[in-house]
Amino acid sequence: MPMNETKRDRLMVGIIVGLALLNLALLAWMYLAPQQQKRRTDRRLFLSQELNFSEEQRKQYRTLREEHFNAIRPMLEEIHESRKAFFQQINDTTLTDAQLLQQAEQLEIKLARVDVMTFRHFQEVRQLCTPDQREKLTEVLARFPARWFSGRAGQGGRGHRPGADSARTGQKQ
Predict the structure, then answer these.
(1) Is this prediction's pTM over 0.85?
(2) Residue 6: which H helix or E strand, with range?
(3) 35-84 per-position pLDDT tens digit
(4) What stretch of H or E contains 91?
(5) Strand, coil or helix: what is 67?
(6) Which regions span the lipid bilayer (predicted)?
(7) Which of 1, 43, 101, 106 is the most exposed place for a label (fewest CB within 10 A)?
(8) Domain count, the chain
């Protein structure tokens, strides 16, 4: 049975509108994707930009940051999994407060290790700095809560942190 002209015209208009919307969505995605990548890059460069590092300092800082990130990443993942397991016990009505407190304390011990490693990392970063940059580093660290640098922001350090780049280098304990 042949389509009448009105139905065919409506179908064509619908297809054209659909394609136009698809094109707009694609253009928006193409425009916004580089912006998100730029923001990620900006966060990684946050500290080196704030302290106005020289090119040599940037290289050294990048190395420190990568070492720290490699050292704390497994710890942050373990904390995230432990926290998830902790809250998955919600249906267990047999847990006592003492048991829950013990589990919470174990999480805090893990977080404290990350904090110590992050503290040591910033001591290493401080060694890269000139005296003026050291003052600026102290100001920057005072401006942002320590949790932004130690993986305590969001769930397991996955939240938005203006100083996220600086939490990514450190020493093994």
Answers:
(1) no
(2) helix 5-50
(3) 555 555 455 678 888 899 999 999 999 999 999 999 999 999 999 999 99
(4) none
(5) helix
(6) 12-33
(7) 1
(8) 1
